[in-house]
């Protein structure tokens, strides 16, 4: 990483190795072998206009890499060598604020042997130890499963998906790019904490919703009229990160209705498929017990989310709620009355 106020040229580009792969500076003697290694996979993922670049085009790239290195190492590109052959290249580019972006490519016939992971690990260590970066990151097309695995095995954590602008749609098919990052302060991947952190960042995460079935002595169900949709629903909401689902439903009732309800047993697990811009989710319905209707006399609704709340008969639930919500309420009521615990998908029993 360059210092804008420093005129001292950087030290010569080093050679790095882990005993299997070697990262070294490019020479003109490497160009023919590198050109021969380009194939449709490289062209596709990088959005190159042609499959195989000409010698002169690749020579210009090599010259640029040497220039950028000399100009404060704002881009450092290494040739990757294994068993005496040119197998690919890796690069880190200065993005400012002690942050570098990574890219890599392996040539045809050189993939599937672990070279990319080894090379990216060497590059990350170099970026932290020699260039002084505090963060490195990579942006990978979500369909490029091999590169996602390389990034994670090299110690980068999956952080999210960045949407792309329309101008990038031809390259990334409008799907966005997965952002993966690693901090200099992160524990090494060779340590249990570091390995678990990377694995945790890549595993699927499903949204959790906690609701509470509160009944009155007449057998009616407490339902909320929401401000952000026309349909009525059970009280509850999204479970926060690190929060108990059982306590989440109780918290939501306190925040939205100012009612204190003791948490009861789980009545229903309902899977909600993707719908209307929402990802799929798991909805857990807990038993809020039976209460005197007068409990609503102390209710204070949160005006940003709740218009009103009432105890509703089953017929009123069917009339006011969406069909899948009505099915969920009916399934939860049945579980409460029979002392069972049920599983449904969009309120429909799989059994």
UniProtKB/TrEMBL annotation:
The keyword Iron does not apply. Keywords: Hydrolase. Transmembrane segments: none annotated. Coiled coil: none annotated. PROSITE patterns: GNAT, NUDIX. Residues 21-185 form the N-acetyltransferase domain. InterPro entries: Acyl_CoA_acyltransferase, GNAT_dom, Nudix_hydrolase, NUDIX_hydrolase-like_dom_sf, NUDIX_hydrolase_dom, Ribosomal_N-acetyltransferase. Residues 204-335 form the Nudix hydrolase domain. PANTHER family: ACETYLTRANSFERASE, RIBOSOMAL-PROTEIN-SERINE ACETYLTRANSFERASE. This is GNAT family N-acetyltransferase. It comes from Nocardioides bigeumensis.
